[in-house]
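Collaborator request, handled under Task 6.
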Amino acid sequence: MAYNKGIIMVSMKKENSNFKAIFGIYFKINRKRLILTIIISIIVFTLLTTFLLTWFNYRNKYFNNSIELNDWHRDNEISIEYRNGLKEKVSMNSNYFNLAINEILSITDTIAPDMFNKYTACMYSEMFSLRYDPQNQSYDATLMTHQLDAFMFITSNLVEGRLPINSTELIYRSSNTTHPTYHLGDQIGLQTTYQTSPIQNFTIVGIVGNFSDSFYQEGFSNDIFLEISNQQISYDHFDSDLLITSPQNFVDIMTFYPLDLIKELILRIDFDYQFSIGSISNLKEIAISINEVQSNYQNFQYLPSKASFFCADLEDFIFIFMKNWNNQTVIVLSSGIPAILLFSFIFTEIFSNGNFQKGAQFRILKLYGLEIKNIQKVILVENIIISSTGLLIGVILGTLFGFLLTIGMVNANFVLYLSAFLEPVVCVAITVLFAVLFIGGFIVESRFAKSLVQSTSEIYKSRRRKFVLKYLFSKETLLFILGVITGGIGYIVWIMVETSYYTSPVPYHNYIRFLSLEMITKLFIIIGVLLTLVSILLILSKLVVLIWRYFGEWLWTRRRNYYTLALKQLSIYSKDYQKAILIMFIIGLCITPGFIVSKSAGDHLKHEANLAVGCCDILIQGWNGKNQEILGNISAIDDIELSTEVELITLRETRIGYTIQILNIFNVSHFVEISSDNFPNEIVDYSQDDIAQLNTNMSFLMDSRYARRERYDRGKIYTSSDITDPNEELYNLTYINKFDVFPLLHQASSNYFTFLQGESYNLVMSNLTASQLMKKLEGDSYDREYYILANVSLTANNAAIIEEIEGFSSSLSVITYEEKLQTLQLEVNEFQIPFFYIITALAIFALLLFGYLTAKNIYNQRLRIIESEYKVGAKRIQIWGNFSIEFLFVIIIPLITSILITTISLHGAFGFLLKMPQTYKEFLPWLPVWLMCLIPLLSIVVIFCGWLLEMIHQVNKYKPVRQE
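Structure tokens returned to the collaborator:
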């Protein structure tokens, strides 16, 4: 130290005004501290850049997942429909259909080129057909044509007959395959109303079978055969017979045949939207353009009427995607709050490292005549070097590390990966970090330098002001008030925005504009939570310090030895450990999730998928519950060993305000046998024998939350007054057992709003019981969903079975456990799971680093105690042992407390943080007792490795004064 003073004095005399020389000396003296600070700055920029680039590239994966979950050709929505209300005959161009399609494509090309290239189109008119037979009976019919490639594919499915050769010949597809209305060679007439005269001389020259499945497999849309209202609400497939002809023949029929007052000519197009790499950044503009086309009347030559809807399916998709993406961003930022706090405090500790040495140097510089403005200039250059070096190297390293992570997650190419730098959020976040490190570091060190060169009177005045402000405006109080105000403003504005989605008569595209405002409000809420959490943690750390202070003094007065001396020292120097206590409260929030998230998510999704398919091999949806022919055809498939039916009845607005779901099992014995192999025994509190008892009339299983509240015991009687009309006969039902989860039965709602109306609950019963209750229902406010459950043989070809089942009716769809599990996995936030792993890994590193830095700081602050212990004969191992006991007592209580709080809170928060599907089963983290004991033990071991690594080294190299 004397040598350093000499260097400074000589340099100051020779070149008092030479800034380079001054800074060179300053740098040499502070070389180790500056290098460490630069390294930390690089790490900070690297972490931020890696996170931002990886997150925005994950958006591409999330977008692709959303597209994969959305089947444009089977989503029960039409992209475009134009209804031409013709009041008189019109003369059509021979190429009218194709010209109409091209006219629409010319509009879509202005919205997003190449997005609308793949489509299925049809033009049709709904009519009545009249068969010329003795009954002269009229039927519903739809005269339809398709674009040429679709028409050629349909006609390739001819089961008998040939293609039409002129406009008097038609191809027929029946809505009833077993009892068709027409046969090959039938003569029919067409008319638009019952009053108009039928036009004769149309002949059925070809019959096509049910081509819907193969039509879809070939890449065409089945949705064009759906009957859809103007609001795009799906009702059912066409029940009327289809009369199909070529585009040319269709135009000829519409133009030349004397059909009286054709009411409507309808054009439908369903797009299979193709998204390019750059389309994701233009989604908002695309949605707004679509809405403008829909809102503004277009003067078309071949489409003289306004569109019923124009790409509303794409507009809805964009809106939902953007809203979900904003929510995902909020979730990731929310789950990163503990990590942000942890590293903020650790980096603060790092940047404040060496304050004793800096203080001594600033005083010497002041003593030898250097003015405060020159000291500030030194600090300014120091912070420029630190911030600029961190920015340059950190962004480069973050880009490389992020790309390595992104390759495994998104399979992105480097050009697409770098496009994330064009996102405003990325540029703003990096710029803000640079400003915080540069400006914030300069301000903090300048204030520190000023405080060290103050006169005695200035120091007295400063302390007096601080003494007053300490009680009136403490940082905990200010942070808490600021956090509440910020979060409150965000919450109020967010509620207003959410309400406007449903109440404000604004154009739909304004909702998309609202999404940016909604995102900002949620960021305000996050900032408010962050500030409030910091305030609470500061208060808790002070409280623990106060407790240890009194405990140390109390214990020292009763028993004096080296161990109680450690606690006595803790009571005197307790403020030294306040940061350690503060960080220990955060550690549990950071380190716990990574240990439990993967297994928790994997197990939950498996159970959710199994329950969603009814614990069977294949689940058949879309059956109307009446067509016994379909049920028989399914049962007759060779590889299906057993099948049964179930019905989900949802009763709404019942007399007592409840929403009640009833699972009606048609054949209880078959249901038990089908579900036995896949039944989730590990997560249910009832047996399959309980299900088998449903064969007893008027018996039932009940939702456990309601059963517990009403204290139901086995055999208790439940009256049907909640369900049936009170004016009708009431039934007494026998309670068998309760259940938390049950296959195919959605969880009963239990949120705040349903609590106000009356708690919802679920029931399971046999068809014998359910059919009696349904006869006595109050009102008609109920919905029905029908399912068919089936088990297949071990050697069965599932793909062939599914194709055969879906061929029985276009309304049927089949889902397997594997397909459902894959769909659920796509819904989960894939980024969040590795993000939790990374946070846990960084938290372990931070523990090690913090233990090292804390040991160094505590050692420098306790040199007098070390010297006094040497004087009374303490050995080195006793000295660092005493310090370690202090440290252990300081960290152990807040560490265990924070981990316990985290464990409890994860039960409610994990489903939200992972966007975990919870339709059938509530998400509960995997938290075995041994793991919860291992996490704090591991944390203590890691932090002590860093602590002892520095503490043993410092104490061992210490030379007592008496030895010098």
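The cover message to the collaborator said: "The radius of gyration is 37 Å. The first strand starts at residue 80 and ends at 84. Please let us know whether this matches your experimental observations."
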